[in-house]
Design brief:
The complex is a heterotetramer of chains A (320), B (263), C (265) and D (356). Chain A is mainly alpha-helical. Chain A contains 13 helices and no strands. Chain A has a domain of 213 residues: MetI-like fold (Orthogonal Bundle). Chain A starts with a helix and ends in a 14-residue tail after the last helix. Chain D is 32% helix and 21% strand. In chain D, α5 packs across α7. The termini of chain D are far apart. Classes of the chains: A mainly alpha (320), B alpha/beta (263), C mainly alpha (265), D alpha/beta (356). Chains in contact: A-B, A-C, A-D, B-C, B-D. Chains A and C meet through α1, α7, α11, α12 and α13 of A and α4, α7, α8 and α9 of C. Chain D: Keywords: ATP-binding, Cell membrane, Membrane, Nucleotide-binding, Transport. Chain D: InterPro entries: AAA+_ATPase, ABC_Ni/Peptide_Import, ABC_transporter-like_ATP-bd, ABC_transporter-like_CS, Oligopep_ABC_C, P-loop_NTPase. Chain D: This is ABC transporter domain-containing protein.
């Protein structure tokens, strides 16, 4: 329990630090957001008025204190361009991005698990060599190129999916998933290449362990041997790097939403960057940081559940 | 023995390692590995240190050799506490105490030639300066450990385990040490090779009066080589004395069980 | 071995592109000719022309300069800083070490692209800033590598022996540790270059890297996407070049790693 | 019970199959412990794995036969081995920690072994598992049953592994360096356990080790392997007290255990050959003090010694040497005194790098 308390304390501290650092960086950056909003021709009194309205005329530390006070109660400030609370904008866009990432992760697992296991079980054979060679090439395909190729292939050449036509989940799950299929597939394919490698490597390592030979010479049935002995052990490695996979999913989402013109958090982030919408950008950074920290916390807890060797109070978890 | 101070004198040495804190706000715990150790090594003497895995025997060796810090005043080299050694005295100590480790392959830098391996400590100690003289010294050392000078240009990967261990011994001898700390120095070797290395170690003592702290889990080897033996168990030396005496009349219960379980 | 050769071949294509771009381009990469837009490959324009009638091949060749210099510069400086930080952290196990490594953990836990986007937002678009962004997120991986290596090497017999005969810090560092770490750093460097290229092209794809009219692989791909219904073949070209560069560095890294493993066992 | 006839193995090295283990013939009987002594590269582990049909991919059986109660194992399809494992053949490893699944409780792993061949109700199975733990000398079986491998000591782990291996009372237990990783006090206890299993349960045990003292302690019969060749076999007393092959004799002279302190050990010059080294003659000839031209050219066959001391014994004393050591009536080696390369002479031997 005190371990969990420690982890939460550190997590809160980290979120605070990141928010401070990013706020400081964003405030000190060159370029005036108000001028960007109003254009360079705007009359000075209007600029001053707007500055005062957003509190931008005060020292930035004070502004940060205000922001922090709001953030604690869930108010992340107001966006310059949307003229709406940042929290509201994020909550509006979240479902689409969440759908996309979950859909993509499931697809990636569906592709990667069987292929990774197949390669590992047939290690050293031509099947394994072929899968490994393909993955080696596959892993180097940039996801933005892949997205364009899929778009080109399945909206132009074989028009299975309508281009740029996002259907929210409220209009039916089937239509929703259909509209997300191509972007999710793009993300999934890129992700799957990494996962196949990981599953194969960790399963091969386990299959070569003495306890697998021992299980074999105990006369265990094949299924029991693979599921109870091999698979569980081989999942420990991949679980520890779920956090990293979530990172690369987030990076992917920013690009994929741009290519497929999807109204999600990734697009929002790009808009915030291009328009210098400080509070929106700050809000998104905090949101992503919290997500990343929560995922890592869950992974650690999950990990201690699966592996009895890792005690909850251990300070360091095994790094792979 | 004589009025001269012993080569190494360990008095009341305790050592513990800090364990990582379980939780930040709780005090750090320590793992005690050595408890109140007393041990002397005289010039020209082979002392066997017997213990099972995790008994702290390697840590004791590393403390004596200066690879681990020991509390002030607990280890004396020729009468001077280690932390008081300075300048020439410190150099003398560093030159005089050398190691031979267990893994004969890992103990040699794979990128070096045999000559480079043996020459490096000679240069570090500044005993011989001219390249030609260093080369001659290396040749002589190789001869001392029973390796042909033709091996000078070989790399560790081209040598067998026993040959690697000979090179490691030559490297340890290169600074003309007074004490060799042999940490499981023959445990990883094949039986038929082990004997030649043991003979070599015995010969070094006879010829050059080099003392040895021979750390091993193997009772037979220690019994064969050591003049005196110390039995270490859970960080404490439970019994020490002349080898023959300890093996014939073990007093401590642990020593008795150790000897009775020897086959 | 096969991996190593394939990687080298792929990379030599990219390097040849770079060399040609330094010596002489087939035609002016910025010369527009609207009348000749989206021309198919011909003797004059080997890979055809883009939406402004510019020669695609020349633009592709010229863009190799920014892609390679930016990623090489970024990863190179990231490697230097990362290795130094990691080595320092490994030697000084106390507070300094843990502060450095925790900072690296935080940096590592941040999505690459988000980090790069933040930096480019703050510093503005342009090659130098992209280079900086790549340097920043390359640092933690090298720091971790070096930190792990320094800790591991403390238990090597030959390092212990060198300490016991007091070979000196300089000898231990430069004659024992660094040569032993080089193969691993090389592997990591090659893999980091792959992701460096990916980041550079991704940022220019999003319009945050090299600014038009100067050509970049990512920017060309972005333009190609806008016109892909008109010229479906155009996106294939810059995408393939990016893929070639990334795959080349990845395969080279894997190849070195495999060879090193063979040499060890 | 288990008959091995002309079994030879090959290793895949440098893209070709090279002979590794020269044809060897022996048999294992119930209630008997057979010790195999061998240094690294002798092929002792390969032999054990071949008997279990768990050879790594880089090794294969080249020829010969392995018959268990008359059934040829080499032609048995892979899936049929499942019924052989555990009930007839069992295998334990050098490293007990590695042989147990770190994520499963000891009890569950034991139950898996039990239920692999028998349909037993859960309650009965647990009872039998606890009894099995008790039989291998675990004093608090309930605790160990519930423990994860990392929660118990190394000696305890090896006992648990043995319990898993012998729960169906197999005919043959192969122990591959099973005591090497253990501390001396634990080692003796495990060896005692082997003695109990073989005598009480009439189990045949193949105990493989480089530890001569341990082999001497447990084995009834000893086989000496070197560089992939069987050099000598016989009853324990015959092989260790009256060795016929020079290698056996030299090896015994090289072990501090057999030598009084103060006397010099007779180290064997040279290095252990790699297992794929296959000279035309005797594998030991390059290091042997008695080797003649013939030893280097012809392969000495395995012959039964006409040693009077073995005549009455049921276990024949065999060796593969053209010049076996002779003995006088006291069993003293007469050869040694006239040995051209006495231990003294060998000591001066300087190792030369092989010509490239």
């Amino acid at each position: 329990m005190s371990y969990l308390a420690q982890r939460l304390l550190i997590a809160i501290l980290l979120v605070f630090l990141v928010s401070f650092a990013s706020f400081a960086v964003l405030m000190l950056l060159p370029g005036d957001p108000v001028r960007l909003m109003l254009g360079t021709e705007a009359p000075p009194h209007l600029v001053e008025e707007l500055r005062a309205q957003y509190g931008l005329d005060r020292p930035w530390l004070l502004q940060y204190a205000d922001w922090l006070a709001g953030a604690v109660s869930g108010n992340l400030g107001e966006s310059f361009i949307y003229k709406m609370p940042v929290t509201q904008i994020i909550v509006d866009r979240l479902p689409m991005t969440l759908s996309l990432t979950i859909f993509a992760s499931l697809m990636a697992l569906l592709i990667a698990l069987p292929l990774g296991i197949w390669a590992a079980v047939k290690r050293g054979s031509w099947v394994d060599g072929f899968i490994q060679a393909v993955v080696q090439i596959w892993i180097a395909i940039p996801n933005f190129w892949l997205g364009i190729l899929l778009l080109l292939g399945f909206t132009v050449m074989i028009p299975l999916f309508p281009p740029g036509n996002f259907v929210p989940i409220s209009e039916g799950l089937g239509a929703h998933l259909h509209s997300l299929f191509l972007p999710a597939l793009t993300l999934a394919i890129a992700e799957a290449a990494v996962l196949i490698r990981m599953f194969r490597a960790s399963l091969v390592e386990v299959l070569n362990k003495d306890f697998m030979t021992f299980a074999h010479t105990k006369g265990l049935p094949t299924r029991k041997k693979y599921i109870r002995y091999a698979l569980r052990n081989s999942l420990i490695g991949p679980i520890t790097v779920i956090g990293l996979q979530v990172m690369s999913l987030i990076s992917g989402v920013i690009i994929i939403e741009q290519i497929f013109n999807l109204p999600g958090l990734g697009r929002l982030l790009l808009i915030a960057v291009q328009q210098r919408d400080l509070f929106l950008l700050q809000g998104l950074v905090i949101f992503i940081t919290v997500t990343v920290i929560l995922v890592n916390l869950c992974v650690d807890l999950l990990y201690t559940r699966i592996d009895p060797r890792i005690q909850l109070h251990a300070t360091k978890r095994r790094t792979t | 023995m004589s009025s001269n101070p012993p080569l190494i004198e360990v008095k009341g040495l305790s050592k513990s390692f800090a364990l990582p804190r379980p939780v930040l706000w709780k005090p750090a715990q320590a793992l005690q590995v050595l408890r109140d150790i007393h041990l002397t090594i005289q010039e020209g003497e082979i002392v066997g240190l017997v213990g099972e895995s995790g008994s702290g025997k390697s840590t004791l060796g590393e403390c004596i050799g200066g690879l681990q810090t020991a509390p002030p005043g607990t280890i004396k080299f020729r009468g001077t506490a280690l932390e008081q050694l300075q300048g020439a005295g410190l150099k003398e100590y560093q030159r005089s105490v050398q190691y031979v480790f267990q893994d004969p392959v890992e103990t040699l830098n794979p990128r070096y030639t045999v000559e480079q391996i043996i020459a490096e400590p000679i240069r570090a100690a500044g005993l011989v300066k001219q390249p030609k003289d260093i080369r001659e010294a290396v040749e002589q050392l190789l001869q001392d450990v029973g390796l042909d000078a033709a091996y000078m240009k070989s790399r560790p990967a081209q040598l067998s385990g026993g040959q690697c261990q000979r090179v490691a011994i030559a490297r340890a001898l290169s600074t003309k040490p007074a004490l060799l700390i042999c940490d499981e120095a023959v445990s990883a070797l094949d039986l038929s090779v082990q004997a030649t290395i043991l003979n070599l170690l015995g010969e070094l003592r006879r010829k050059y009066r080099i003392s040895q702290l021979f750390i091993s889990h193997d009772l037979h080897v220690v019994k064969y080589l050591a003049d005196r033996v110390a039995v270490i168990h859970q960080g404490t030396i439970v019994e020490s004395g002349h080898t023959e005496h300890v093996f014939k009349h073990p007093e401590h219960a642990y020593t008795q069980s150790l000897i009775s379980s020897a086959l | 071995m096969k991996t190593l050769i394939t990687g080298t071949v792929m990379l030599s294509v990219i390097v040849i592109m770079l060399l040609i771009s330094w010596i002489d381009l087939p035609s002016d990469p910025n010369a527009m000719n609207i009348a000749n837009r989206f021309a198919p490959p011909s003797g004059e324009h080997w890979l055809g022309t883009d939406q402004y009638g510019r020669d695609i091949l020349s633009r592709l060749l010229l863009a190799s300069q920014s892609a390679l210099t930016v990623s090489l510069g970024g990863v190179g400086s990231g490697m230097l800083i990362g290795c130094i930080l990691g080595a320092v952290a490994g030697y000084m196990k106390g507070l300094i070490g843990s502060v450095i490594m925790r900072a690296m953990d935080v940096l590592f836990a941040f999505p690459n692209l988000l980090l790069a986007l933040m930096l480019v937002t703050v510093l503005g678009t342009g090659q130098v800033n992209v280079l900086l962004a790549i340097a920043v997120f390359s640092v933690p991986s090298f720091a971790r590598l070096m930190y792990g290596f320094v800790l591991e090497a403390q238990s090597y017999g030959y390092i212990k022996a060198a300490r016991s005969y007091n070979a000196g810090h300089a000898v231990i560092l430069f004659r024992h540790l660094i040569p032993a770490a080089l193969p691993r750093i090389g592997v990591q460097m090659s893999l980091a270059l792959g992701s460096g290229i990916l980041t550079e092209t991704a940022l220019s794809f999003l319009g945050l890297g090299v600014q038009p009219p100067h050509p970049s692989w990512g920017g060309m791909l972005n333009e190609a996407q806008s016109f892909m219904y008109l010229a479906p073949a155009y996106p294939l070209i810059p995408g393939f070049v990016i893929f070639l560069a990334v795959a080349g560095f990845n395969l080279l890294g894997d190849g070195i790693a495999a060879r090193h493993k063979e040499a060890v066992s | 019970m288990l008959e091995i006839q002309d079994l030879s193995l090959e290793l895949y090295v440098d893209k070709t199959w090279k002979p590794a283990l020269r044809p060897l013939t022996f048999r294992l009987e119930p209630g008997e412990i057979t010790g195999i002594i061998g240094e690294s590269g002798s092929g002792k582990s390969l032999l054990a794995k071949a008997l279990m049909n768990i050879l790594p991919a880089r090794a294969r059986v080249a020829s010969g036969s392995i018959r268990l109660h008359g059934t040829e194992l080499l032609s048995l399809p892979r899936h049929r081995f499942r019924s052989v494992y555990g009930r007839q053949l069992a295998y334990i490893f050098q490293n007990p920690a590695g042989a147990l699944n770190p994520l499963m409780r000891i009890g569950d792993q034991l139950l898996d072994a039990l239920l692999a061949h028998e349909e037993v109700p859960r309650k009965e199975a647990v009872r039998r598992a606890l009894k099995a733990l008790e039989e291998v000398g675990i004093s608090d079986p309930e605790r160990v049953f519930r423990a994860y491998p990392h929660e118990i000591s190394g000696g305890m782990k090896q006992r648990a592994v043995i319990a898993c291996a012998v729960i169906h009372e197999p005919d043959l237990l192969i122990a591959d360096e099973a005591t090497t990783a253990l501390d001396a006090t634990i080692r003796k206890q495990i060896l005692d356990l082997f003695l109990v299993l073989s005598k009480k349960k009439r189990m045949s045990i193949l105990y493989i080790s480089h530890d001569i003292a341990a082999v001497q302690y447990v084995a009834d019969k000893i086989m000496v392997l070197y560089g992939g060749m069987l050099l000598e076999t016989g009853a324990r007393g015959d092989v260790l007290d009256r060795p016929l092959h020079p290698y056996t004799a030299d090896l015994l002279q090289a072990v501090p255990y057999h030598v009084k302190p103060g006397t010099k050990l007779a180290g064997i010059p040279g290095n252990v050959p790699p297992i794929t080294a296959k000279p035309p003659g005797c594998i030991y000839a390059p290091r042997c003090g008695y080797a003649t031209e013939r030893c280097k050219e012809d392969l000495p066959p395995m012959v039964v010694a006409e040693d009077p001391s073995t005549a009455a014994d049921k276990i024949p004393h065999t060796h593969a040497c053209f010049h076996p050591l002779l003995r006088d009536s006291l069993g003293k080696e007469t050869h040694l005194n006239t040995n051209p390369s006495s231990p003294e002479g060998r000591e001066r031997y300087v190792q030369q790098p092989a010509a490239h």
